[in-house]
Design brief:
The chain is mainly alpha-helical and about 325 residues long. The chain folds into 2 domains: about 280 residues, no CATH class; about 30 residues. The protein is built from 9 helices and 7 strands; from the N terminus they run βαααββααββααββαα. The strands form 3 sheets. A 3-stranded mixed β-sheet has the order 1-4-5, with no helix packed on it. It has a two-stranded antiparallel sheet with strand order 2-3. Strand 4 and strand 5 form a beta hairpin. Helix 1 runs antiparallel to helix 5, helix 2 runs antiparallel to helix 4 and helix 5 packs parallel to helix 7. The longest helix has 26 residues. The protein is elongated and about 90 Å long. The chain starts with 5 loop residues before the first strand and ends with a helix.
């Protein structure tokens, strides 16, 4: 008896316009970055956070650069099994193959997450701003944008799921076997993108301490992705990295191993951030006039303390 299934839409093609080097996947990245930028700017405005438009643009530039570098490096150094990038490392960022433009095919989300995190930490250190504050706003802005990236994977017909008998199983031409599979890209777009974003967005003005959303993001994404990996087809050239017995639940992919590191990082960060000084969150920052007024009051109090000290010394 044949399985119920859905054929992959034949009208979906990787190229936006056939014959031109414009792909939906690249456009989805633009949508993702634009969505994250708009959500970040919304938080800056609603909290009256002291950040200018130039600073916001600069922050996103370095954050996106770190994300792309990390995503590409992880993809070529961890997921590549051919060894070509180790032998010819200049190909890591070379978007041409056999004289044709192919773009940078292959990005690792885990590499992008840690690359972006490192870039934001360096930016915060250089600009002398609170990493916990700007990191929390990033955590509340990124997941919804991530949804577009997985839609790009779906349009490419790549990163499909394991064989299934569920009625919504889909036959992906790239699999080559004609069997219905989980549309795992859509699972990831829904749960790692929309659901995770709604959770973090709910806590953005309810967080118990600064840095909470950063930990919640790494912990939440790691957990959700770990579960969805059970529905996703392992990389053909890598397969399962850890196999314990014949139990499929105890067979772990590269993505699941990296997710465990994300979960561990999220837990450790939450424990650290909850004990750091100046951890109380600021819901809404004072405007410039109020800040100047507060600074004048603080200066007056400091002068009074010095006067009292001089009197005691006399």
């Amino acid at each position: 008896m044949p399985f119920l299934s859905i054929n992959f839409p034949s009208w979906l093609k990787p190229e936006i316009i056939p014959g031109l080097p414009l792909r939906w996947y690249g456009l989805m990245y633009i949508f993702a970055f634009a969505t994250a930028f708009l959500l970040y700017r919304k938080q800056v405005k609603e909290r009256n956070f002291p950040m200018t438009s130039d600073n916001l643009t600069s922050l996103f530039f370095w954050g996106i650069l770190g994300l792309l570098l990390g995503a590409r490096l992880f993809s070529t150094l961890i997921y590549d099994s051919t060894g070509i990038y180790a032998r010819e490392p200049w190909l890591i960022f070379w978007p041409f193959r056999n004289g044709q433009f192919t773009g940078l095919q292959g990005m690792s989300y885990h590499g992008g997450a840690f690359g972006g995190l490192l870039a934001v930490i360096i930016y915060a250190k250089a600009k002398k701003v609170s990493f916990r504050e700007i990191g929390d706003m990033f955590a509340a802005a990124i997941p919804l944008g991530f949804t577009f990236g997985r839609l790009g994977n779906f349009i490419n017909g790549e990163l499909y799921g394991r064989v299934t008998t569920v009625p919504w199983g889909m036959i992906f031409p790239a699999s080559g076997d004609g069997l219905p599979r989980h549309p795992s890209q859509l699972y990831q777009a829904l749960f790692e993108g929309i659901v995770l974003w709604l959770l973090i967005w709910f806590f953005r003005n309810r967080k118990p301490f600064k840095g909470f959303l950063v930990g919640l993001y790494f912990l939440g994404y790691g957990f959700i992705r770990f579960i969805i990996e059970y529905f996703r087809e392992p990389d053909v050239d890598l397969g399962f990295r850890i196999v314990i017995g014949n139990n499929p639940i105890l067979s772990f992919t590269t993505g699941q191993i990296l997710c465990l590191w994300m979960i561990a990082f999220g837990i450790v960060w939450l424990l650290i951030a909850s004990r750091l000084p100046d951890r109380k969150p600021i819901r809404i920052y004072a405007d410039e006039h109020t800040r100047l007024h507060i600074n004048k009051e603080d200066a007056a109090k400091e002068r009074n303390k010095r006067r009292k000290m001089r009197k005691k010394l006399k």
